[in-house]
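During the no-cost extension, the postdoctoral fellow (Dr. R.K.) reprocessed legacy sequence entries with the updated structure-token encoder. One reprocessed record is reproduced below for audit purposes.
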Amino acid sequence: MMSFVENLPPLVFDVPWLLLAALILPALVWQLRCWQSRERARRLARFADVATLARVVPTADRSEQRRTVRLVIAVALAGVALAGPRWGLARGPTTGRGIDMAIALDASLSMMAPDDRPSRLERMKQEVRRLRAMSQADRVALIAFAGRSYILTPLTGDDGALELFLDNLDPGVVGQAGSSMSRAIRQGTELLLASDGSADRALVVMSDGESFEPPEELEAAALEAGERGIALVTVGFGTTAGSTIPVRDGSVVREKRDEAGNVVVTRYTPDLLEKAATAARGTFIPAEASDKATRIRGALRTLRTARRAIETRDDHVPRFLWCLVPALLLLGWDTLRLLPRGPRRAGRRARATVTAAAAAPLITLSCSRPPDPAVLFAEGRVAEVVAAYRDMIAQGDTTARTAYNLGSALIGADSLPEASERLEMVRQASEGETQFRARFNAGLAALRMGRADPGEESARHFAAARAAYRALLTDRAGYLDAQWNYELALRKNPPPSGGGGGGGGGGNQQNDERPQPQGQGGLDQRQAEALLNSAAREERDVQGRRQRQGRTPPGGKDW
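Re-encoded structure tokens follow.
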């Protein structure tokens, strides 16, 4: 597992109370050595006085003192190692259980009110981040709503994509002013029901409750969500005393005014939020409640979860070897110092050599094991890697991971048709990170076959590659390798109509279709990203203009 270590992390211990051993054991060894020294001096005193002994054995005391220091240090280090010291944060994949959750966020102008410091919108973002930190295994979708609702992200576990859209959330995202919670509830219900998986589904609506729509519409939308198995949680923000709405006009900040020129005062309105939760038999969390994220998790605790792969996990790296190895080296050195010199020492060395020679075959047999396929792959011995994984499957290892590794190794061996077939089987039979990587490498195999086959089959291979990467990008946002390979498939054999997608990213599979220096007319990675991002920006601009043209909120209330 690849990992990296961050700078200056805290020091922790697996079993902190065992640190007492690092204090007690050295003290016991010191006392034992002192007792041995006194006993030795008492025995020697029977044969000569202290002055005579000093002349006969001049270095005995100093040698014993150095040995005592070595033993005390070795025992202290072993005691620290026994406590399990850890420092440095390692990041690597893990698994967990979670639900599917859509979070509808009120992005209307009233959420800029500062009565909930620093503003209702910022407090709402803080609660979303805390909720996400409590539920890393959940798949989360973000929906922004004001006069209309807009899906920011599909269901994903990509924290980077969620944080990106959350940071950029403001009243300008939705385009149509006003506030309509019923549309957000309906869109969230449709999004959750369209998802696959065995986990239960939940819809969390965060708003100040100030909505300019008939209560009957909101209750009908909430009732429909509840009847279709969606757990609805409504969360309030703001104060009933209310506040004015600051509006920035260039460098000037002024108060929001209505069509008659009066200063607008927006107030937290819990009635609609409570009616929606009651209609769906869900949970209402008022604005004055503390620790809203924990209350949301408590309301969803009884939902059925599903096991999923989590992108990364921060954990402290075990460092006990840093203490144990020096302790063993000190003990080994002390043991060597005890060996007698002269003929007796040579005889013992001969016996030790014979013993070691007899034990060597046993040690060799106990340590022998098949070579690690990952090591073989790193050394470029792809054929041996393929043979190793075939043997593992023949011996009964039918896990998706082994099948995925064989398919990936077959790509390296240029056995592309078989690789594509095996990876497609893995994609259909797995989920989470393994499914994501299998889809990526299946697309890679199809792309390679399309580039290698100039005949009629080339178009079919390129179409398969485009389909694989389009689905992958829809699932995860910002994965550059997939964007690049998708662009390659488009450039080599464009489809009849344009396509694209954005979606999530992770995975550490090596991708040799990454851009290399190209001749005239080729695109490097930066140009390909710019092309995809430009198309996405143009689409957002067009949608924004359509939303703003001729759209007037109910009753002229645009906050």
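The first helix runs from residue 19 to 44. DSSP finds 19 helices and 13 strands in the chain. The remaining legacy entries will be reprocessed before the final report is submitted.
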